[in-house]
Amino acid sequence: ILVPLPEPEARRAMFEELLPATGDTDLPYDFLVERTEGYSGSDIRLVCKEAAMQPLRRLMAVLEETSHTLGE
């Protein structure tokens, strides 16, 4: 079964659902929609998951470095 790729409106809705804006931060949804032409729904979900994990990975790296610096 061939499932068509999501149209721009569907991609925007996915980004708004998977990466909601918080506080005063406006996410560049239009930019994301433009950059993901040709992406499947599962591709977009993966991109959003990776984007959400980046701050946690940076925090873990800082904590690990701090741990090494303190000699633990």
From TrEMBL:
<keyword id="KW-0413">Isomerase</keyword>
<dbReference type="InterPro" id="IPR041569">
    <property type="entry name" value="AAA_lid_3"/>
</dbReference>
<protein>
    <recommendedName>
        <fullName>AAA ATPase AAA+ lid domain-containing protein</fullName>
    </recommendedName>
</protein>
<keyword id="KW-0067">ATP-binding</keyword>
<dbReference type="GO" id="GO:0000922">
    <property type="term" value="C:spindle pole"/>
</dbReference>
<dbReference type="GO" id="GO:0016887">
    <property type="term" value="F:ATP hydrolysis activity"/>
</dbReference>
<dbReference type="GO" id="GO:0005874">
    <property type="term" value="C:microtubule"/>
</dbReference>
<keyword id="KW-0206">Cytoskeleton</keyword>
<keyword id="KW-0493">Microtubule</keyword>
<dbReference type="GO" id="GO:0016853">
    <property type="term" value="F:isomerase activity"/>
</dbReference>
<keyword id="KW-0547">Nucleotide-binding</keyword>
<dbReference type="InterPro" id="IPR050304">
    <property type="entry name" value="MT-severing_AAA_ATPase"/>
</dbReference>
<feature type="domain" description="AAA ATPase AAA+ lid">
    <location>
        <begin position="29"/>
        <end position="65"/>
    </location>
</feature>
<keyword id="KW-0963">Cytoplasm</keyword>
<dbReference type="GO" id="GO:0005524">
    <property type="term" value="F:ATP binding"/>
</dbReference>
<dbReference type="Pfam" id="PF17862">
    <property type="entry name" value="AAA_lid_3"/>
</dbReference>
<dbReference type="InterPro" id="IPR027417">
    <property type="entry name" value="P-loop_NTPase"/>
</dbReference>
